[in-house]
Design a protein that fits this description.
This protein is an alpha/beta fold and about 260 residues long. The protein is about 25% helix and about 25% strand. The protein has one domain: Metallo-beta-lactamase, Chain A (4-Layer Sandwich). The strands form two sheets. A seven-stranded mixed β-sheet has the order 6-5-4-3-2-1-14. A seven-stranded mixed β-sheet has the order 7-8-9-10-11-12-13, covered by helices on one side. Strand 11, helix 5 and strand 12 form a beta-alpha-beta unit. Bound molecules: zinc ion (2 copies).
Length: about 260
């Protein structure tokens, strides 16, 4: 299987990086994680055929993770896609997803392919295909702020994800609320640990690496302003650690067994 980092930027629009998105390519199923603003163009930049995507999973609905879905499904429709597409989102967020597609005129009946939407629950193993499963856990990235409820608490959903694909264990923090969220899957010793960088500091990465001890760590969701600090931290690590840690850029490919 392969992990392809489609976009490695943060929520701030950048000339250097697309917003955060990761493609998990395997023999059984090809899954895109998040579809933020600009994702269709980001996929083209990484030479990913839109119609090779079997499913898309959403971690939360900030624009840098969600609002590209209307444009991406439009491209699939225009290209004459016939292959079924499955969207995975937390069960509380199914209705807003259906609404977004409706408001960009992507009516399921007119797409030309079958669109399936599956609502996942936290801490429940979801089998996507043979040798391909995931589990979501709630992190504290999206929480009601200051007692003012701009939207219902039921929509305050943000997920960290763990995957088991062809025998590989992959943890993806997605956006977190605090360093504590980095340890949601701390009973696993994953082959690959993918962490965001915009809401934590490099020192937090060192601590999490020491505790979780993954075979490899990949750093994504990088703010341009934080990039130099991250590189300084990385350059000062000892060689053994640097070999196991990668600062991602758009289009980076990691091939696993
Ligand atoms: Zn984000
Ligand atoms: Zn976010």
């Amino acid at each position: 299987m392969k992990i392809i980092f489609i976009g490695t930027g943060s929520g701030k629009t950048s000339k250097e990086r697309f917003h955060s998105s990761i493609f998990l390519e395997s023999a059984a199923f090809n899954l895109l994680i998040d579809a933020g603003d600009g994702v269709a163009k980001a996929l083209m930049n990484s030479s990913i055929d839109f119609n090779s995507i079997n499913g898309i999973i959403f971690t939360h609905y900030h624009a840098d993770h969600f609002t590209g879905i209307g444009a991406l499904i439009t491209q699939m429709k225009i290209s004459g896609r016939k292959l079924e597409l499955t969207l995975f989102t937390h069960k509380n967020l199914v209705e807003p997803l259906i609404n977004l597609l409706y408001y960009v005129y992507m009516f399921p009946e007119t797409l030309g392919f079958n669109l399936k939407i599956i609502g996942y629950r936290f801490a429940e193993k979801m089998i996507v295909a043979e040798d391909f499963s995931f589990m979501a856990k709630q992190n504290s990235h999206v929480v009601p702020k200051g007692g003012i409820e701009f939207y219902p608490e039921s929509m305050c959903i943000s997920s960290s994800l763990s995957f088991t694909i062809a025998g590989n264990s992959i943890v993806y923090t997605s956006d977190v609320g605090s360093p504590n969220d980095l340890y949601l899957f701390d009973t696993l010793k994953p082959d690959i640990y993918i962490t965001e960088m915009a809401h934590i500091e490099p020192e937090d990465l060192y601590l999490v690496f020491k505790k979780i001890n993954p075979a490899k760590m990949f750093i994504t969701h990088i703010d341009d302003e934080k990039f130099n600090k991250l590189v300084d931290w990385y350059d000062n690590l000892d060689d053994a650690l640097r070999d196991k840690i990668t600062i991602c850029n758009d289009g980076l490919v990691e091939t696993l067994g």
